[in-house]
Amino acid sequence: PPSGVSCSGCGAELQCRDGAAPGFVPAEKYRSLSEGPAGAAGLRGAVCQRCWLLAHHGRALRLQLPPEQHRQVVSAALRRPPRHGRGPLLLYILDVLELPDPVLPQLPGLLGPDVPVAGLLVVGNKVDLLPADSPGHLGRLRQRVAAACAQAGLRGAPLVDVRLVSAKTGFGLEGLVSRLQRSWRCAGDVYLLGATNSGKSTLFNTLLRSDYCKSRAPDAVDRATVSPWPGTTLNLLKFPIINPTCDRIFRRQERLREEATKTEDQLSSEEKKYLNRLKKQGYLVGEVGRTFQRQKPSQVVDFDPDMLSYSIDEDPRHSPRQREEREEFTYNEVKDARWCFDTPGIVKENCVLNLLTEKEVKLVLPTHAIVPRTFILKPGMVLFLAALGRVDYLQGEKSAWFSVMASNLLPVHTATLSNADAIYEKHAGQELLKVPIGGEERMKEFPPLVPQDITLKGIGTSEAVADIKLSSAGWVAVTAHAEEKLLLRAYTPKGTALVVREPPLLPYISTIRGARIVGSAAYRTKKPPSLVENLKTAGKR
């Protein structure tokens, strides 16, 4: 029978009946864990087969789980009766690369008119992947996120703040923790909401090991499973929030002040190694520390002299391996606790990721700092982003600059309008265009590219006029001479969304480029340096 115990990675109820349903554990493993002295409680801390494959092999099992079920889980959770006499605080995680966010306008419908919300805090995630195209680019990004909230009808009373962070590199997270702690008096439980792949589970795991969480919780609460596969979290996961008393706030501020005086040279070799790894992954890096560490008791080693006293004729005896006891919260620790919940991501409709295999998703979703690739195209030229998107420059008086912002693993190719169709027919599904993967057989089932005509008017050679967003595959920023009229035709796979984003997210992106490559439409790529938060860097602000 179903266990009544949730998978510690995705929140689905553990079961061994249906391999295509959430929470599946192979029967042999299920029995070995549940038939011991602890009964079904022996399953606590276990993960389902899907989470195990995602974590250890990067493989994703396709489940029979309709997108509507994700919405139902989230909506039901938000409609729970208020605890502590206060409504929930909603922490909406928004992927800044995906602006305008397709799920944000659905938020009022998820809540309904009868849900008393203490506030809405919108967090723009993955800012570490975007280079600084000009001074003050973070302030401009924050304005874009705030504008997206206003466009979705979220303004005024429920919206309490907008923050920019990187859940992966830690940038902006200490500030987010301080902001959340200031909401303690006016809010009840906290819910992490957002679209699939927005980084909710990564943020949940980071907050679990921060000053926002009870000090003993990391030993009793398992980390959420994180993967690029959309919809990894299937049910609610939670950890208890620490009460930010005056003493705790004071001690935390002391730690932050002390850390702000350190330079990179004062870090330990392990800290430097970790920091350098983060610098390779993102442009913006931060450190998330802990003020309230729980002292663990020293481990007691069982010594059995009989284990060492066997004759030459005897085999050594091995005592049965004791299973490590799992820590549990006491009733008093959690009876009045407020909880932080990770919820299932709302599946994005008309998204190219829904058409891709797990291997293709890994190539399309950027995991490292995006290096902009700029090309100068004349009318009659075409730009391909893998086999997932295409932009044709049909009419214009002068050359224009096209800057591609997409995963560094996706190839970009230019061609002439006369041979573009032949190139797509020959190389889609092959190594040259890379994604989709699988040759002619894969392309038979993959939707064809469909066109949309776009007219733009340039505003200057250093500032892009608009982004052409090719669903979730990336975007192309278009920069043209002032008053120059351009007629473009952009393509994305049938059933996916093509968005013209005005104003562009990074308007000065074309200025981040190296020298022109001789005999080519491309410029040499140029990766800007990384910025480390909360550390004093000698000779720099």
UniProtKB/TrEMBL annotation:
Among Gene3D superfamilies, the record links this protein to: P-loop containing nucleotide triphosphate hydrolases
Against Pfam families, the record matches this protein to: MMR_HSR1, YqeH-like_C
| SUPFAM superfamilies (alphabetical) | P-loop containing nucleoside triphosphate hydrolases (SSF52540)
- This protein's UniProt keywords: Coiled coil
Query: What range(s) does the NOA1/YqeH-like C-terminal domain occupy?
Result: 402-502
Where is each G domain found? Answer: 190-240
InterPro entries the record matches = GTP-bd, Mito_transl_resp_regulator, NOA1/YqeH-like_C, P-loop_NTPase
Specify the protein name. NOA1 protein
Tell me which stretches of the chain form a coiled coil. Answer: 246-273
Single annotated GO MF: GTP binding
